[in-house]
Structures are given as structure tokens and as C-alpha cells.
Write a structure and sequence with these properties.
This protein is of the alpha+beta class and 743 residues long. The protein folds into five domains: 3-76; 81-188, Beta-Lactamase (2-Layer Sandwich), CATH 3.30.450.20; 201-302, Beta-Lactamase (2-Layer Sandwich); 314-472, Reverse transcriptase/Diguanylate cyclase domain (Alpha-Beta Plaits, 2-Layer Sandwich); 487-742, Alpha-Beta Barrel (TIM Barrel), CATH 3.20.20. Helices cover 47% and strands 24% of the residues. The strands form five sheets. The chain has an eight-stranded mixed β-barrel with strand order 18-19-21-22-23-24-25-26, surrounded by four helices. A five-stranded antiparallel sheet has the order 2-1-5-4-3, sandwiched between helices. It has a five-stranded antiparallel sheet with strand order 7-6-10-9-8, with helices on both faces. Helix 1 (3-30) packs antiparallel against helix 2, helix 13 (361-379) packs antiparallel against helix 14 and helix 18 runs parallel beside helix 20. It starts with a helix and ends with a helix.
Length: 743
């Protein structure tokens, strides 16, 4: 039975005993003899009264104990939470302050009772204006939440949140108020730190809801072109980006993608577009759902990436897609449509190296630009033009028949019939084109390029300015070129070069007046390699410089040896390439060789070609220096190039050599006769010695003599011979010549 039930039972007994006491009083009035019963009733009543008093006392004592325990628990909670309650009844002037104020302010509780203004005195001076606003609100009956700093006795500064709750009477007079005080220092410092980070961040940080800006930091407003964040606040996001991007932002706030970075285009207030990389997260802001954006300006990075991508896939000079782009495009084309036909045209400019070496790279670059423009105009929508590198281009033609490929290639060749004009000077550039077909000649870009390149070399071998299709047998020729190049790099070291000499004859007296040195390469495996095959390769690789020096020195030494052997003075002629003329050390090399060998300069003839005209100023300067040294200079293969007679008369040359191609048909072709006669007449007028090459018949000799050509050389007199054999030939020729004279 619980305590309450006990009280009820005792109370009922007490009522019964009172009733019996009343009954006992009546009985005593009637019968005074029953005193034992009366005594029993008195004792029972007293007992019930004592029991009731005891139970009542015990009940009050338990309730008091429970209340005390509750108050103690409540105080413990206040102290633990760093919360204080200040309650002041202004009518009765009763002040109640919870002990938690000691933890908040650092002062003993009794000091607040002794000095009720202590809480104001410790407020930070900078926050004192808060009190005025607080007093006004409380006086008008409003609940007021104030935030201010206090200075504790140990000098520590803490942030306090003070929620004041006033009570007014019917007349509007405040009769009491209660303040609930919290220490919010940690929260406040965290907020300040976060706000500082946000405002100082160089990245854009913004909050949007209902498609409008609720917040944006300084960096973000500057990025968008506003003077301050207030210029952006509450503006619709669609003013700054597309609806598609807004949709993308919403999608990025989904749980699976929230926080992931993505890119979008944003428009500044002045209309300029910038690129941002941002992340979006759903947050609660101002009590409602919003989207927080954190991003950075990547416009410069995107521009840099674009430049890098352009550099990686496009040629900076011509603007054409480069070899990397070609490989990518070809691979994609094959992957997407493996059954289509594709033609690869590998194009190399003939004679471009000569122009580049003589006129300089600036002129060469202009020619490449004009060629690129020309090729695009010819190809148009039939295909794409790429620059492979240097003077090499690739044309990719898709879905054309073999005949259509040939027609397009023919149009390309025809477009080069017109000269390229630079600064009023004409340059004739022609292409050699090799063609490979997908899938017949290869199924990957490497094979197709390789086979087209191989076919291009065949086009060069067949006279240049033409095109050739790839066929499997070309692989052998390609392998030969590679083998030649590798061998050429060791040719001097392995002593595989030798000089042959062809006599030069005075057509009038038939005296041998000199010889021309002609280089030969005896390859240990491939046999005798003709100069027409390896000299262009030597010029292309730059090996012509050391090889040319070797030829000059060996020819001069051979001439000295013949003289020692009693053959008299035999002048020697050496062919000089444009690449050698271009070399800054060429003149010094000639002077040093003559000095080392003590060889007379007027016994050395240097044969140059018309290609030096491409860089007339440079060539003239070099030739004048050579003339000062004392060597003889002749123009070889005259009539096959693009000589300007006006320039020719300013060159310090001594003789002109008529090319073999003009001499071959002088007995049958009237045009050839006219050309040869014109060259001879011009030479006489300009005081040049005329030398005819490739003489093979007596009739040619007689014709040239009639036209006043002075010197000739060719198989009619002697084929080129090694030094020892030529020495025997010279002895025999001198003997026969003496006999002819005697007769």
C-alpha cells in the first residue's frame, strides 16, 4: 500500500473514532457505569490523531525533500551549460540570480547582489551602445536579444548573448524583467573566422535561393564586375548565366553529385564571358533551403589550355592542323567508318631547301604560308590539308574514287605552275607528291604515312613536280635511302670516297687545260653509288660540308702529285653546293686548304650553280671574297635555273658552262642550237669563257668551234677516270697530240 493509501486509511479511522467519541458522550449521559469503553475510545482517538499528524508531517517532509533535489539538479544544469538567469521583480525589488553567472562573468555571485550594475560595468567599451537599444526595446515591452562582449577579471574577453524578457502592467510600466544569458564565444569566434575566410577568399562564394542571390562575397562581386556585393544581392541568377547552366547547378546539388566540381560560363555586368569552375551544395540559409556555390575564375587557365591545345594540334606558322591532328583525325575517321576510302597525299616542296638556305627563313616562312593557303583553295571541301613539318604537307581526301584522287592531285600540281611573288621577286616552287590509299596500302596511320612518304621519294627520283602511287616494291627503295644515309655518316671515316677526273679540252688547240673533279662513293655492299643519289642526301643532312672540304683538299693534292710526276700544271675544278656557300666558314676553309698545301689559287676553279641567285646578296659577298683569294669561279649547268642576266653581270665569275642537256641535240633541234648560240654570244659580250659539257661526237665539237665555244668536256674526249688512270691518259693524250701537231 502506498503512502497516499495510508493517509486515507488513517483519516477514515479518525472519522470513525470521532463518531464513536460522540457516541460515547451520549452513552455517558445515559449510563455512567461503562467507563472502560469510554477510556478505550479516548485512547483510540488520540492514537488516530497522532498517526494522522505523523503521516501529514511525513508527507510534507518528503515533498520538501523532492523539491530541494529538483532545485539542486536545475542549478547543476545551469552551471554546466554556462547559462545564467537574472530575474528582477521591480515592485518588490526582489532579485534572483542563478549561480551560473559566476562562470559567465568570473565574479562571485554575492557581488552581483551587492552591485546590481556590475553586469554593465564589465561590458567592453566598444559594445556600450548596445545598452541604449536594449533599454528602448525592453521599455516598450519587446523581447530583446543583445550580443556584447564582457571583460572578465583575468582580462579574458567573452561574447555574451543576453535575451531580455520584460513584463509590463496595464499602464505600460515595466514591473519585472528576466534575462537569460549565454556564453557564445566559441560560436561567435567560429562565425567570425568563417566570415573572414569567406570575405578574404579569392574565390567566389555565393548563396542562391529561388534563383536569386541571397549572398555573395567581395571576390565574387568583383569577379562579376560589381562595385560591391549589394549590387548583386537579390538579382536573378539568369542575368549572369544561361538557363541550361542554372539547371546544371540544381542537378549538382543532388546527393550523388553534391560538392563535385563542374565548369560553366558566366557573364559579367559588362557582358564579357568568363569561365568558372564551381561546386554546389544544398544548405539551410535564413531558415530555408538554399544552394551554396563555391567557385574560381578559370578563364586564364582555359585560355592557356586552348593555346596549348592549339599548339599541340595546329601549326603556328600556317594555322593548318599539324601531324598530331592528322593522326587523331585519321584514326577517328577509320574507327567511325572503317569501310570508307581514304587517300593520303604526302607532299614535299622541291627546291625549298635551296630557297630557305639562300633567301633566309623569313622568306621561306612566307612561301610556306602561301603554299598552305594555295593548297586549301585547291582542296576545298574534298578533304583537309595538314602541315607535317618543314616543307612537308599532308592532304587527306575522303570517299573519292582513284580517278577523283588523281584529278585532285593534278589540280594541286597545276596550282604550282604560277610563281610565288614575294617583294616583287618570283619564286618557282613545285611539289613532289606520294599517295597511299586506305585500306589497300595500310590500315593504320603509321603505315599510310610511311607508304605515302615512300611514294613521294619515288616522285622526286622521277624528276620532281609529279605524283606517284605507292606499290609494295617501293619498300626496297625506301630501305636503300635509309641505308645510304646511315652509310654516308661514316663514309669519310671508312675512306669509301674517291675522286674521278674528267679532262677539259681547248676546242681550238685540243690541249688539256684542266680537269673537273667528280666524287664517287664505293659502298662495300651496294657498290658504286652515283653522285645524283647521295649528293642531295648529303646536302639535306649537312654532311656536304665535311665531304666538300675533303673533295677540295684531295683534288688540290692530286694536282700537285701530277705536277711532281712531270705532267705540268693541271688546274682542277671542284663543284660547290649552295649549302657550302651558305656556310659562314667556307671562305676560311678554302684559304686554309690552299695555305696548308701551298697550292696556287689560280689553279683552283670553283664551279657554282644558278641556285645561288636565290640569295644574291649573300652569294655575291662570298664570291667576291673568293675572288680576292685568287681562285677561278665558273657558273655550272647554265640555262637550267632561273638566272637573271642583270644579276649575272654583277657576279665575279670567269666562265660559263653550257649544260649537257643543250649540247645533246644541237645537231637536230633548231631551238637547242639557238639557245647554245645565245649563251655563247652572251659569254663573249660579258668576257666569260664558255665551256660546253657532255660532248660526245666530233660533229658537236665542230659545231661548237664554229659558234666560238672555247672549251669542252665529255665522253668524246674521255670519261671520268680515277687519278692514276687519268695520269696515264694525260701522258697518252700528250703523246698523240704531239704526233698530230708534227703531222
Amino acid at each position: 500500500m502506498d503512502f497516499t493509501q495510508y493517509k486515507k486509511t488513517v483519516f477514515m479511522l479518525f472519522i470513525i473514532m470521532i463518531f464513536l467519541e460522540i457516541a460515547d458522550f451520549s452513552w455517558k449521559t445515559i449510563d455512567h457505569s461503562n467507563r472502560g469503553v469510554s477510556l478505550f475510545l479516548h485512547i483510540g482517538l488520540v492514537f488516530c490523531m497522532l498517526a494522522l499528524l505523523f503521516l501529514l508531517f511525513k508527507g510534507n517532509w518528503s515533498a520538501s525533500k523532492e523539491l530541494s533535489k529538483s532545485n539542486k539538479n536545475l542549478n547543476n544544469i545551469f552551471e554546466t551549460l554556462d547559462v545564467a538567469i537574472w530575474s528582477h521583480d521591480l515592485k518588490s525589488d526582489v532579485l534572483l540570480i542563478t549561480p551560473g553567472i559566476e562562470n559567465l562573468y568570473g565574479y562571485p555571485l554575492k557581488e552581483f547582489y551587492q552591485d546590481t550594475l556590475l553586469w554593465k560595468k564589465v561590458i567592453h567599451p566598444e559594445d556600450m551602445p548596445v545598452l541604449k537599444e536594449r533599454a528602448e526595446k525592453l521599455g516598450s515591452g519587446q523581447v530583446c536579444v543583445s550580443v556584447y562582449r564582457i571583460i572578465k577579471p583575468d582580462g579574458q574577453v567573452r561574447w555574451i548573448q543576453d535575451r531580455g524578457i520584460p513584463t509590463l502592467d496595464d499602464n505600460g510600466e515595466m514591473i519585472s524583467f528576466t534575462s537569460v544569458l549565454f556564453d557564445i564565444t566559441n560560436r561567435k569566434e567560429s562565425e567570425d573566422q568563417y566570415r573572414s575566410l569567406v570575405e578574404m577568399s579569392p574565390d567566389i562564394i555565393a548563396v542562391i535561393s529561388n534563383q536569386a542571390f541571397d549572398y555573395i562575397n567581395e571576390a565574387g562581386s568583383r569577379l562579376i564586375g560589381a562595385k560591391s556585393p549589394e549590387d548583386i544581392m537579390n538579382k536573378d541568377v539568369s542575368h549572369f548565366t544561361s538557363l541550361e547552366n542554372i539547371k546544371k547547378i540544381r542537378e549538382q546539388t543532388k546527393e550523388s553529385t553534391a560538392g563535385e566540381r563542374f565548369e560553366l560560363t558566366v557573364y559579367r555586368l559588362n557582358g564579357d564571358a568568363i569561365e568558372l569552375e564551381i561546386s554546389a551544395m544544398p544548405i539551410l540559409y535564413g531558415g530555408r533551403m538554399a544552394i551554396q556555390l563555391v567557385g574560381r575564375d578559370i578563364t586564364n587557365r582555359k585560355e592557356t589550355e586552348k593555346i596549348i591545345r592549339t599548339m599541340a594540334y595546329y601549326d603556328s606558322l600556317t594555322g593548318l592542323p599539324n601531324r598530331n591532328k592528322f593522326k587523331q583525325y585519321l584514326n577517328e575517321s577509320i574507327r567511325e567508318a572503317p569501310d570508307q576510302s581514304i587517300a593520303i597525299l604526302f607532299l614535299d616542296l622541291d627546291r625549298f631547301k635551296v630557297i630557305n638556305d639562300t633567301k633566309g627563313h623569313s622568306t621561306g616562312d612566307i612561301i610556306l604560308e602561301k603554299v598552305a593557303f594555295q593548297l586549301k583553295n585547291v582542296v576545298k571541301d574534298k578533304g583537309i590539308v595538314f602541315r607535317q613539318g618543314g616543307d612537308e604537307f599532308i592532304i587527306l581526301l575522303s570517299n573519292l574514287t582513284g580517278q577523283e584522287v588523281e584529278e585532285t592531285t593534278g589540280e594541286v600540281l597545276q596550282s604550282f605552275n604560277r610563281p610565288i611573288v614575294i617583294h616583287e621577286q618570283e619564286f618557282f616552287v613545285t611539289p613532289s607528291i606520294g599517295i597511299s590509299m586506305y585500306p589497300k596500302d595500310g590500315e593504320d596511320q603509321e603505315s599510310l604515312i610511311k607508304h605515302a612518304d615512300t611514294a613521294m621519294y619515288l616522285a622526286k627520283e622521277r624528276g620532281k613536280n609529279n605524283y606517284q602511287f605507292y606499290f609494295p616494291e617501293l619498300e626496297k627503295a625506301s630501305s636503300r635511302n635509309m641505308e645510304l644515309e646511315n652509310g654516308l655518316r661514316k663514309v669519310l671515316e671508312l675512306d669509301q670516297l674517291t675522286l674521278y677526273y674528267q679532262p677539259k679540252v681547248d676546242l681550238e688547240t685540243l690541249d688539256i687545260i684542266g680537269v673537273e673533279a667528280l666524287i664517287r662513293w664505293e659502298h662495300p655492299e651496294l657498290g658504286m653509288i652515283p653522285p645524283s643519289e647521295f649528293i642531295p642526301l648529303a646536302e639535306e643532312t649537312g654532311l656536304i660540308i665535311p665531304i666538300g672540304e675533303w673533295v677540295l683538299r684531295e683534288a688540290c693534292k692530286q694536282s700537285q702529285e701530277w705536277e711532281k710526276n712531270g705532267l705540268g700544271i693541271i688546274p682542277v675544278a671542284v663543284n660547290i653546293s649552295v649549302r657550302q656557300i651558305k656556310d659562314d666558314g667556307f671562305v676560311d676553309m678554302v684559304k686554309e686548304t690552299l695555305s696548308d698545301l701551298q697550292y696556287e689559287p689560280d689553279r683552283l676553279e670553283l664551279e657554282i650553280t644558278e641556285s645561288i641567285m636565290q640569295d644574291f646578296e649573300k652569294s655575291t659577298n662570298v664570291l667576291n671574297k673568293l675572288k680576292k683569294v685568287g681562285v677561278i669561279i665558273s657558273m655550272d649547268d647554265f640555262g637550267t635555273g632561273y638566272s637573271s642576266l642583270n644579276n649575272l653581270r654583277h657576279l665575279p665569275i670567269d666562265s660559263i658552262k653550257i649544260d649537257k642537256s643543250f649540247v645533246d641535240d644541237i645537231m637536230e633541234d633548231s631551238n637547242q642550237v639557238s639557245i647554245v648560240k645565245a649563251i655563247i654570244d652572251m659569254s663573249q659580250n660579258m668576257n666569260f669563257t664558255t665551256i660546253a659539257e657532255g660532248i660526245e661526237t666530233e660533229n658537236q665539237v665542230l659545231f661548237l668551234k664554229r659558234k666560238a665555244c672555247q672549251v669542252g668536256q665529255g665522253y668524246h674526249f674521255s670519261r671520268p677516270l680515277p687519278g692514276p688512270l687519268l695520269e696515264k691518259f694525260l701522258v697518252e693524250w700528250e703523246r698523240e697530240h704531239s704526233e698530230r701537231v708534227l703531222k
